[in-house]
From TrEMBL:
It holds the Pfam family DUF58. Residues 76-237 form the VWFA domain. Residues 304-314 have a biased composition (Low complexity). InterPro entries: DUF58, VWF_A, vWFA_dom_sf. The lineage of its organism: Bacteria, Candidatus Ozemobacteria, Candidatus Ozemobacterales, Candidatus Ozemobacteraceae, Candidatus Ozemobacter. Residues 295-322 are annotated as: Disordered. This is VWFA domain-containing protein.
C-alpha cells in the first residue's frame, strides 16, 4: 500500500502535468523522439515499384522469383531521467527550490513515457551514482520512480555529471532518450563524457537555475556559503563591480555551455526554479518538429540543436535560457 502522502503528491503532479502529457500523447512526444531504429519484419514477393536495394538475393536465388526484405520502425522508446541531487539543487530564492522544479520535470517525463507505453528509468546522482532504477514499464514501477524522485536523500553533497554519464553509457544496452537534469553550467571539462553520450543516445541537457544565480541584487554585505563545499565568501553587493563581475562570469559560463552543446548536437531545455516546466519542454518539441520538417523538406532544418527557433527571444528556451 502506498502512503497517502505519496499518492497526494503523485496526484498533484498529474494535475500539473496533464496538459503536457496530453499534448505529447497527441503527437509531439512521438514525433520528436525516435525509436531504436529499423527492425526486420519479413520477406515477401517483389512488386513493381519496390526498391531495388531491398531485394533479398539469397531467397531470390533459392526460389527463382524476386523477393524483398521488409522492415518496420521500432517505435518503443527507452527513457532515462538522470537527475542531479547535489546540495546546490536545494537552493531557491523564491517559494521553490531548484530540486522541486527538477523533480516536477522528471515526474512529468515519467508520466509522459508511461502514457506512451515506453520504458522509463531514473539515475539519481551527485558526484557519483546514488541510485539507478533501470527502464521498465508498469504502474507500480512508475510510482516507484516518482517516489524516489520525491523522497530520495543522497549520501553526498558535491556534483559531477561524469560518473553518471559513464555509468549510463555502460549500463544502457540500447539507444535511449536521456534527460540530464543539473544546475551545473560549467560543463566543458566534461566534454569527453558528453560527446560519448550524445553519440550513443538522444542526450538532452536540462539546466535548472534560480534567478538570483543570474543576477545579484544590491543588498550590501552578504555572506555566501557554497552548499557543496562549505566554503564561505563575503561579498559587498553594494559595489557595482562585484555585481557586474558575478553576472559576467555567469554569462560567460552559459555561453561556453551553449557553444559546447551546439558542437556536440545536444538539445537544451532551460528550467527556472519556481516557473513552469511545461513551456520550455513545449518549446523544445516545437523546435525539433521544425528541424525535422526542414530536413524532410530538404531545407536542412535548424542549424543548431536547441530550442532557439521556438522562442520569441531567439535564445534557447526563451527567457529561461541557461
Amino acid at each position: 500500500m502506498l502512503p497517502k502522502e505519496l499518492l497526494a503528491e503523485v496526484r498533484k503532479i498529474e494535475i500539473k502535468t496533464r496538459h503536457l502529457v496530453d499534448s505529447v500523447y497527441a503527437g509531439g512526444y512521438r514525433s520528436v523522439f525516435k525509436g531504436r531504429g529499423i527492425e526486420f519484419a519479413g520477406i515477401r514477393e517483389y512488386y513493381r515499384g519496390d526498391e531495388f536495394r531491398a531485394i533479398d538475393w539469397k531467397v531470390t536465388a533459392r526460389t527463382g522469383d524476386l523477393h524483398v526484405r521488409e522492415h518496420i520502425e521500432e517505435r518503443e522508446l527507452q527513457v532515462v531521467v538522470a537527475l542531479d541531487l547535489s546540495a546546490s539543487m536545494a537552493f531557491g530564492s523564491g517559494l521553490r527550490e531548484k530540486r522541486e522544479t527538477a523533480v516536477e520535470f522528471g515526474a512529468a517525463m515519467t508520466l509522459a513515457a508511461a502514457r506512451n507505453n515506453d520504458r522509463v528509468g531514473i539515475c539519481l546522482f551527485t558526484d557519483q551514482v546514488e541510485k539507478f532504477i533501470p527502464p521498465a514499464k508498469g504502474p507500480t514501477h512508475n510510482l516507484r520512480l516518482i517516489r524516489e524522485l520525491l523522497y530520495f536523500l543522497p549520501a553526498h553533497q558535491q556534483s559531477d555529471v561524469r560518473p553518471a554519464l559513464s555509468f549510463l553509457n555502460r549500463s544502457l544496452g540500447r539507444r535511449s532518450v536521456v534527460f540530464l537534469v543539473t544546475d551545473a553550467i560549467d560543463l566543458p571539462p566534461m566534454e569527453r563524457e558528453l560527446r560519448i553520450s550524445a553519440a550513443r543516445h538522444d542526450l538532452i541537457l536540462v539546466t535548472v537555475r534560480d534567478r538570483r544565480e543570474e543576477e545579484i541584487p544590491d543588498i550590501g554585505l552578504v555572506e555566501i556559503e557554497d552548499p557543496e563545499t562549505g566554503e564561505e565568501f563575503l561579498w559587498d553587493t553594494a559595489v557595482p563591480a562585484v555585481r557586474e563581475g558575478f553576472q559576467r562570469t555567469e554569462q560567460e559560463a552559459r555561453a561556453r555551455l551553449m557553444a559546447l552543446c551546439r558542437r556536440l548536437g545536444i538539445d537544451v531545455i532551460a528550467l527556472t526554479a519556481g516557473e513552469s516546466v511545461i513551456d520550455p519542454i513545449c518549446r523544445l518539441f516545437a523546435a525539433r518538429e521544425r528541424r525535422q520538417a526542414g530536413i524532410a523538406g530538404g531545407g536542412g532544418g535548424l542549424g543548431a540543436r536547441s530550442a532557439a527557433a521556438a522562442s520569441p527571444s531567439g535564445r534557447p528556451g526563451g527567457r529561461d535560457s541557461p
